[in-house]
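Entry 14. Structure prediction run on the chain below.
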Amino acid sequence: MLTRLFRSDEPVSYEGRFYSLREATLLPRPEREGGPRILVGGGGSKRTPELAARFADVWNGIFMDPNTFRERSAALDVLLSKHGRRPRDVKRTLGLLSFFGRTEDDLERRVQPAREWDEELASLPLEEVLETLRTEWGAIAGPPEIAIEQIRAYEQAGVEELMLEWFPADDVEGAEAFATNVLSRL
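Output returned:
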C-alpha cells in the first residue's frame, strides 16, 4: 500500500483486513522519484523474503551466519525473479551484534551483557562465549584478526553493507579502536 501512495499521482483507495483508505494522497511528495527506498528487515525464511521480493529496495537480514545469509539471499533471488525483478534490484544488508576488544580484558567487559542475557554463557570461559556468540548468535565477536576474518566471510556471502550494534553504545574509545584496528584494514 505504501508503495502505491509513494508512486501514485492519483488518490489511492484500499480496503483491507486491518485498515482502509479512501482517496488518500501522500503529501508532501517524496523528493526521490518513486518514493523513499523501502527496507524490509528480518531473518525469517518465509514471510520476510516474500515481502522483500515484492516491495523492498533493500533487504536487511539480522543475526545470521554467512552461510545462512547466502542461502536466504539465493532464495530471495528466486522470489525476485518470480515477481519480475532482478537480484540487483534489492541491496543486501545485514545487522549483527558486535563484541570487539583488543585484549582479553576488553573482550571480557564487552561480553558481560551477553552473559547477563543468557544464563548458559555466564559460566563459560571467554573463548567459548566468543565462539557461541559467533556461531549461534551470528555476532562479530573477538579481537581484530577474528573480526576481520568474520567481516570478510560476510562480504563473500554477498553482504553489501554491514550494520553493527555496538556494546556499550557510549563506548567511543572502543568504537575508535574498532575503526583503527579492523575497519582500516578491510
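Strands lie at 12-15, 20-24, 39-41, 58-62, 91-100, 140-142, 161-166.
Filed with the rest of this week's runs.
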